[in-house]
Amino acid sequence: MVAACIVMADAPRGVVVSKIMAGLTAFENLFSGTLDVSAQLGNMTVKPHLLMSRPVTLFTGQWADLALADLLPLVKKMGYDGVELACWGDHFETDRALAEPDYCKKKWALLAKHGLACHAISSHLVGQAVCDLIDERHQAILPADVWGDGKPEDVRQRAAEKMKATAKAARKFFNAKSPGKNGGRPPEPAVVNGFTGSSIWHSIYGFPPTNQDFWNRGFADFAKRWTPILDVFEKENVNFALEVHPTEIAFDIATAHRALEAVNRHPRFGFNYDPSHLGYQGVNYVKFIRELGNRIFHAHMKDVWWGHGNGTVGVFGGHTDFTDPRRFWDFRSLGHGDINFEEIIVALNDVGYRGPLSVEWEDGRMDRIHGATESCAFVRKLDFTPNAAAFDAAFSKNK
After folding, report:
1. Which CATH class is domain 54-383?
2. Beta strand 56-59 pairing with 40-41
3. What HEC string does the chain produce?
4. 50-81: string of b/e by CB count within 10 Å (b at 16+)?
């Protein structure tokens, strides 16, 4: 509030008091949702979307063993503002959302019952199959209608069609949130997070020798398969946010830029920022924000440690399971790893990201309810609202 109220050093006491009282009233209205965007505090315009803290949500992907009706009261109890709904389990079912007239309305009613919001849905599993070299592992993660006969090219084609359907389902879902209450304005872009798969990930180490022509063909394959999908996202006013991640077409800063160029910087292609997949690789995860901030459509809060183990397993994992004590790196509950989240929050503020901070909780060494609860508290303590005015504005003598 102090930052929002510009108090002139030489102003009469009554003016100072009136400005402080106006600031208090405005902030009460801000958090009650009644402050007009054009409200003025002294000589400064208040912008609520810049002043309010970001919602803290939980990605439900790692909780899909629980029915959504059972998970949501737990999410609320753990302290979250909402959820990022996974398109598996019964959390968000693309086909039902499109086919059943009241499916989306019922989802919102269930969320509202527990005082929770939703800002994104996620379709990592189906998206992975669009570009991948399909093998038997994919059958375990794909819906039966996408897997079908298991023939690789047929699987890829069906996955592409399902991603197009997901864009339509996302639009229908978010339109159902508050139908007819948008004041005639176009709806806000919806967000679908996910994976793309990659036809060239297997060549990452470059032997047999791999040249740029080989990798260029991989990016061309990505563009050929994903541009028609992204065109549907454009038609539906939905953004696709790729989680930059090993096994995807983009797994670091360089490949993120290359993927953007491959689809001619399609306006609907961006990123679900997740530092945990960058840090252990040696990628500067804060630089990612500063270079690609205008393409960050969503953000995961997820921790990882690296430089551990006993020296027998390196960054490639040594064909070991997660939590194997020999591992060089492993995912950790927030605050228990090596990611510097303070720098991340500062960078996200600097680039203007005001979307949710979605906890993707993974830590094979910790009880998940304990871990997700402390992770929510960790993010709330860490996040802070950007300043609405220069910190030294109070010294100004301008009236």
Report:
1. alpha beta
2. unpaired
3. CCCCCCCCCCCCHHHHHHHHHHHHHHHHHHHHCCCCCCCEECCEECCHHHHCCCCEEEEHHHHCCCCHHHHHHHHHHCCCCEEEEECCCCCCCHHHHHHCCCHHHHHHHHHHHCCCEEEEEEEHHHHHHHHCCCCHHHHCCCCHHHHCCCCHHHHHHHHHHHHHHHHHHHHHHHHCCCCCCCCCCCCCCEEEEECCCCCCHHHCCCCCCCCHHHHHHHHHHHHHHHHHHHHHHHHHCEEEEEECCCCCCCCCHHHHHHHHHHCCCCCCEEEEECCHHHHCCCCCHHHHHHHHHHHEEEEEECEEEECCCCCCCCCCCCCCCCCCCCCCEEEECCCCCCCCHHHHHHHHHHHCCCCCEEECCCCCCCCHHHHHHHHHHHHHHHCCCCCCCCCCHHHCCCC
4. ebeebbbbbbbbebbeeebeebbebbbebbbb
User: Pick the residue with more confidence: 46 or 246?
Assistant: 246
Return the domain boundaries, the chain: 1-52+388-399, 54-383
**pLDDT tens per residue, range 104-157:** 999 999 999 999 999 999 999 999 999 999 999 999 999 999 999 999 999 999
Instruction: Find the mean pLDDT for residues 295-299.
Output: 98
